[in-house]
Specification:
Distance between the termini: 159 Å
Largest sheet: 5 strands, antiparallel
Number of strands: 11
Strand order of the largest sheet: 6-5-4-3-7
Radius of gyration: 40 Å
Mean pLDDT: 79
Helix content: 55-70%
Number of helices: 11
Low-confidence stretches: 342-352, 363-367
Strand content: 5-15%
């Protein structure tokens, strides 16, 4: 048995290989025991805290730091063997790759944790947190690119030359992808300036609907007709946007028109009648009512009232109730609404035709 253990393979005895393998197994068992004892104890302590910071830190320690420590210890154990220069180089490269991998993942985890905590402290809604994932993905890509450059530098490549090439190539790509970059920068504008958020009802130009998704390149809007409208972010940023969800109140202006046959005493009473009708309605705040203009065929009043809510259905119900009561009140007071210009002209033409026919039929008798 001793002879077999003392046999040499690749400059190391079988005993050396067995000891290294046993050390790796023992290290894994010890780390698992320590992880369970320490992390379980810490989780009990942090479970009493009101914040999620400590929980996220423990999660990052468990996901990234413990595996990385275990791999580094394994590399140190394997390094005790007498290995050739080529194998040592492979091990060093592997250690560098592992370091970059876990380092990039840990940095990305810390970025996500920091941004999420920042959004929570600001009281941002969940839709904004989801929207932040677009920016977070861009930051993660940048971290991985920096990690790749670090890895190449440690492997002996000329990083300066690579960066110079990437710079020239980046300019060419930027020129070729101006629209994509424009949408990307517009996404940052939408995120930080917040002209609208997911769930807002917006009108942009001749398009309107509820925002369902804000992506890096496009935003998706559900129109009143039910179809999905996909709009580039750059177009949205250039277009004036009406955000009805942020509307705090509605200002209603309408112009009832009455006939010139209305008695002057009734004309004086109309503003007060309109005020009483509007003031009697709940959620309607009367502003003013005046005789505004004297048209060719009608007398026009201008009435203004406010509704201290942006609820569209409430606005329509209230407006309908006010209009109906105005019609009832005017009819009861014998106040005639004026007809439109076209109706008046048609009525005049019909009257003239009747007069002409009457004049034709009323010819003098001849003998």
């Amino acid at each position: 048995m001793n002879d077999y253990l003392n046999r040499i393979y690749f400059n190391n005895t079988v005993r050396d290989y067995l000891l290294v393998f046993a050390a790796i197994i023992i290290t894994w068992i010890v780390l698992q025991i320590l992880k369970r004892i320490i992390i379980t104890s810490v989780k009990k302590l942090t479970g009493r805290s009101k914040t999620n910071i400590d929980d996220a830190l423990i999660s990052g320690f468990e996901k990234f730091l413990v595996p990385y420590i275990y791999i580094l210890i394994n590399f140190a154990i394997i390094d005790q063997l007498k290995l050739s220069a080529g194998v040592n180089k492979v091990i060093n490269v592997a250690a560098t790759i592992v370091t970059v991998y876990y380092g990039a993942r840990f940095i990305n985890h810390a970025l996500q944790l920091s941004l999420n905590l920042y959004m929570q402290r600001r009281g941002e809604p969940s839709s904004r947190v989801l929207q932040m994932n677009g920016i977070l993905n861009i930051l993660k890509v940048i971290v991985w690119m920096l990690g790749l450059l670090f890895l190449l530098d440690n492997l002996g490549f000329e990083v300066t030359t690579i960066i110079t090439g990437l710079g020239i190539g980046g300019i060419a790509i930027a020129l070729a992808a101006q629209n994509i970059l424009g949408d990307l920068f517009s996404y940052f504008v939408i995120f930080f300036d917040k002209p609208f958020e997911i769930g807002d009802f917006v009108v942009a130009g001749d398009k309107s609907g509820t925002v369902e998704q804000i992506g890096i390149k496009t935003s998706r809007i559900r129109t009143l007709g039910g179809e999905e409208l996909v709009m580039p972010n750059a177009e949205l940023v250039k277009t004036p946007i009406h955000n009805f969800k942020r509307q705090e109140k509605r200002r209603v202006v309408f112009n009832p028109r009455v006939s010139y046959n209305t008695a002057p005493s009734l004309l004086r009473e109309i503003p007060e009648l309109l005020k009483q009708i509007i003031s009697s309605k709940e959620n309607a705040v009367f502003d003013r009512a005046h005789l505004a203009s004297l048209g060719e065929y009608f007398i026009s009043y201008e009435v203004v009232f406010n509704i201290p809510t942006a609820d569209f259905n409430l606005y329509m119900d209230l407006q309908q109730s006010i209009y109906l009561e105005i019609i009832e009140t005017f009819k009861a007071r014998n106040i005639e609404f004026a007809m439109s210009n076209k109706s008046v002209m048609v009525e005049k033409d019909m009257t003239m035709e009747k007069d002409e026919e009457a004049s034709k039929n009323d010819k003098p008798l001849t003998t």
